[in-house]
Specification:
Blueprint (H helix, E strand, L loop, with lengths): L2 H4 L6 E5 L17 H16 L2 E5 L19 H12 L5 E4 L4 H10 L5 E4 L6 H5 L2 H8 L4 E4 L24 E3 L1 H15 L5 E5 L8 H7 L5 E4 L4 H7 L3 E2 L9 H14 L2 E3 L3 E5 L8 E5 L2 E2 L4 E5 L1 H12 L3 E5 L12 H15 L3 E4 L2 H9 L8 E2 L3 H8 L5 H7 L1
Parallel strand pairs: 1-2, 1-5, 2-4, 3-4, 5-6, 7-8, 7-15, 8-10, 9-13, 15-16, 16-17
Antiparallel strand pairs: 11-12, 11-14
This protein binds adenosine monophosphate (AMP).
């Protein structure tokens, strides 16, 4: 059993770093997607049920110059209270402190009784948070008896509340929350204990964003599927005609190097044989199907084509481990959704047949949610950038600080 599950929080004040960086409507401040809040509820509930109290700290948005209304966590207090109340099956009042430091925060946290919850104002109203300021972290640490990091979404940042603060708690009094534990376990399973065949599906816009992850996966995967806009840099590097498809000309050499390394290592790289092409980057563009290496001038590839879908789905269905990062096309527009949807269906099918599948990285997560497949894959990561860096082989400061 994990440290968190074993720990009895009775009579203790748990200072939890959560990732409540949820999208808010610009005018009404209504929450657009509360997945990140829901993801932290099991951790909060365990502590409250033990008889502990909870102090929540988070960032929201990217405030530049101190406090600003649009990035205030006060907008989410009501919904948080609803979620905690529902999960606990009894009324829980969520208090709010207008500052994450200072008298109000200290007085409210000191007065907190077992079963009570306090949400602190946005940590990033202080520049010290992102700078990883040690003095700021030490002050925050005084608010609680135990430090729980449940913010996987910021685990790749060495910020005051995500990493630096851990040094002010002794071993046994700093730990991952349930969300963070789940993320780390799923990621480790894929990276270090993957059953083969292991297929990584990498999509999205740019090769430059995905080079490190591909290079790391070349050491581990048996198959790498490359789709999305980045596929056309590979196509051009191989001598194909790609019309006005997305292309990073300064990465043509890198693309060729990746293909050479893959061949040396016996990793199969799957590139889309055909594409859905469009005469314009628009939802109502004219479309056609073309070989991905013979796209006419004036046209661009905006989704993988029917042959590619078949080829990719077959590789996915053979797999025992699947990692998916990035969409296969411009899935935000209906005409260019089929590739990403086909992949989602194939991943769900492979999972039903016993494969372990992890979807991580912002846009592929948005896609599985949009198409309704989130509960048909083994794990959907809440941490886009953090998961990407983990799969690039980097040590995440938020994880290292707890393990030290
Ligand atoms: P990323 O954040 O790198 O995973 O990229 C995701 C974005 O890539 C999404 O907004 C997609 O619309 C976009 N995208 C996927 N395929 C293409 C394509 N063929 N051409 C242009 N953009 C694409």
């Amino acid at each position: 059993m994990s440290l968190f599950s074993q720990h009895n929080f009775s009579g203790q004040k748990a200072l939890i770093r959560v990732d409540f960086n949820v999208p808010l409507d610009k005018q009404t401040f209504a929450i657009g997607d509360d997945n990140r809040m829901r993801a932290a509820i099991p951790t909060i509930v365990k502590i409250l049920k033990d008889g502990g109290s909870v102090i929540l700290m988070s960032h929201l948005g990217r405030p530049k110059e101190g406090p600003e209304t649009k990035s205030s966590l006060i907008h989410i207090v009501g919904h948080l209270q609803e979620l905690v109340t529902k999960a606990m099956g009894t009324d829980v009042f969520v208090q709010f402190a207008n500052d994450c430091m200072g008298d109000e925060a200290f007085e409210k946290s000191a007065a907190l009784r077992p079963g009570e919850v306090l949400l602190l104002e946005n940590l990033r109203f202080y520049k010290e948070e992102e700078k990883g300021d040690v003095g700021f972290a030490e002050k925050l640490s005084k608010l609680g008896d135990v430090y729980v990091n449940d913010a996987f979404g910021t685990a790749h940042r060495a910020h005051a509340s995500t990493a630096v603060i851990a040094q002010f708690f002794p071993k046994g009094k700093k730990m991952f929350g349930l969300l963070m534990e789940g993320e780390v376990k799923a990621a480790e399973l894929v990276l270090h204990k993957a059953e083969k065949p292991f297929t990584a599906i990498i999509g999205g816009a740019k090769v430059s964003d995905k080079i490190l992850i591909i290079e790391n996966l070349l050491q581990r995967a048996t198959d790498i599927i490359i789709g999305g806009g980045m596929a056309y840099t590979f196509m051009k590097a191989k001598g194909g005609q790609i019309g006005k498809s997305l292309c990073e000309d300064d990465r043509l050499g890198t693309a060729l190097e990746i293909l050479t390394k893959a061949a040396e290592k016996g990793v199969t790289i799957h590139l889309p044989e055909d594409s859905i092409i469009a005469d314009n980057f628009a939802a109502d563009a004219n479309t056609d199907v073309a070989s991905s290496n013979a796209i006419p001038d004036g046209w661009m590839g905006l989704d993988v084509g029917p042959k590619a879908c078949e080829q990719f789905a077959a590789a996915i269905k053979r797999s025992k481990t699947i990692l998916w990062n990035g969409p296969m096309g411009v899935f935000e527009m209906e005409k260019f959704q089929t590739g990403t949807k086909t992949i989602a269906i194939a991943v769900a099918e492979a999972t039903a047949n016993g494969a372990f599948s992890l979807v991580g990285g912002g846009d592929s997560v948005a896609a599985v949610n949009q198409f309704g497949f989130a509960d048909q894959v083994s794990y959907v990561s809440t941490g886009g950038g953090a998961m990407l860096e983990y799969f690039e082989g980097k040590v995440l400061p938020g994880i290292a600080a707890i393990n030290e």
